Amino acid sequence: MFDERLRQLAAQHLLRRLRLVESEPGAVVSIEGRSVILMASNNYLGLATHPALKKAAIAATERFGVGAGASRLVTGTLPPHAQLETELARFKGTESSLVFSSGYLANIGLIPALIGDGGLILADRLCHASLIDGCRLSGADFRVYRHRDLTQLESLLARRSARRETLIVTDGVFSMDGDLAPLPELIALAERYDARVLVDDAHGTGIMGTHGRGTLEHFGVESRLPFHMGTLGKALGTSGAYVAGSADFISYLVNTARSFIYTTAPPPASAAASLAALDLVRTEPERRARLWNHRHYFYDGLMELGFRTTDTRSPIIPVLIGDPQKALATADRLLQLGVFAPAIRPPTVPRETSRIRTTVTAEHTREQLNSVLATFKQAGEELRLI
Q1: Which residues are marked as active site?
Q2: What pLDDT does 261 receive?
Q3: Is residue 11 part of a domain?
Q4: What value, to the nearest 5°, has the Cα angle with vertex 49 and ends 44 and 55?
């Protein structure tokens, strides 16, 4: 049974395999014995390899060990977890926060805690898989609206019973397209129709907004949303996720979010490293500035070469190919030429939108970006993409 399904995936050019990376996840990595420029990481600020994070993780490991041992409701809370939640709340301007072991666990625990049977969820078509799965697990009726289509969203809101509990779910920065949810207009709709909004700010935390507080800060809507979630494993360079909100709401999640209650807490080293990362986000705004300078330079370079992309407004810059076989061929040729940027194919993205999803980080150099652009030019011409 499994071998037949694998053959089917291979025939559709949708088979995936794991590649062994034999070095730390910096701008240049070692893959299969070769040094290549990495253009696929969500380590936007380069913090995953920062000495301060390594030092914090080592110190926490030496003091508290390598694992938390169990759920925090069973064995208690270690100081790094409590300190991280205090600092996350301070950074996000909320009363409290709660840390989960991953963004996936946060979303599949948070959404069913927010809404259940009898409720209605309206989610953007391009929401992350963890949001979609959380919606399905909730037991609420679940409808998808076209990507960033507020006209359709309003139509769905207007057709429902005025008293029906409703949750609108969206990413802040969409992980495969790099574009932004129209949060001010979306929130205005929610306020007009008495619905709640959940924003997953995984790809906004640390890089969007003047102070890096995320997409909500970027749009100036922080005071209009009582809670949101985000992750620690992207711009902050560690692992895990958080939900930020009022003290009562966080206490409610401690008692109702199954993926928090029944999961071993994140390693203390990860929590301590996240604390160090938050400090760097606050004290080194030049990292964010360098990231955006690199992003604009690389985006402009791809456009000048004639590649197609999305309405991206972030360091996520997809190079649209369309056909999955051609996307695979492009990724393979790029790797041969020294650039690691894998092909993204269905079901991760809609049919006929296979792409090379590139990401720029603060750790890339201008020389590296020029080399990547030259590589894309060569591959694009060889494969008749440009």
Answers
A1: 175, 203, 234
A2: 97
A3: no
A4: 130
For residue range 39-82, list pLDDT tens digits in order.
999 999 999 999 999 999 999 999 999 999 999 999 999 999 99
Segments in the chain below pLDDT 70:
none
pLDDT value for 16? 87
Cα separation, 115 vs 138, in Å, equals 6
37 within a domain of the structure (yes/no): yes
The pLDDT, as a whole number, for residue 15 is 87
Do 138 and 268 share a domain, yes or no?
Answer: yes
Total-model pTM: 0.94
**CA-closest candidate to residue 138, choices 115, 169, 158, 166:** 115
Phi, psi of 166 (to 5 degrees): -135, 135
pLDDT of residue 67: 94
Q: What is the pLDDT of residue 136?
A: 97
Chain centroid to CA 330:
24
pLDDT at 17: 86
pLDDT at residue 229 in the model: 98
Tokens (6 digits) for 41:
């990481």
The residue out of 251, 266, 283 marking a domain boundary is: 283
Inside any domain, residue 78: yes
Range of the domain at 231: 51-283
Q: Quick one: three-class SS letters along the chain?
A: CHHHHHHHHHHCCCCCCCCCECCCCCCEEEECCEEEEECCCCCCCCHHHCHHHHHHHHHHHHHHCCCCCCCHHHHCCCHHHHHHHHHHHHHHCCCEEEEECCHHHHHHHHHHHHCCCCCEEEEECCCCHHHHHHHHHHCCEEEEECCCCHHHHHHHHHHCCCCCCEEEEEECECCCCCCECCHHHHHHHHHHCCCEEEEECCCCCCCCCCCCCCHHHHHCCHHHCCCEEEECCCCCCCCCEEEEECHHHHHHHHHHCHHHHCCCCCCHHHHHHHHHHHHHHHHCHHHHHHHHHHHHHHHHHHHHHCCCCCCCCCCEEEEEEECHHHHHHHHHHHHHCCEECCEECCCCCCCCCEEEEEECCCCCCHHHHHHHHHHHHHHHHHCCCC
Buried/exposed 176-194: b ≥16 CB within 10 Å, e otherwise: bbbbbbbbeebbebbeebe
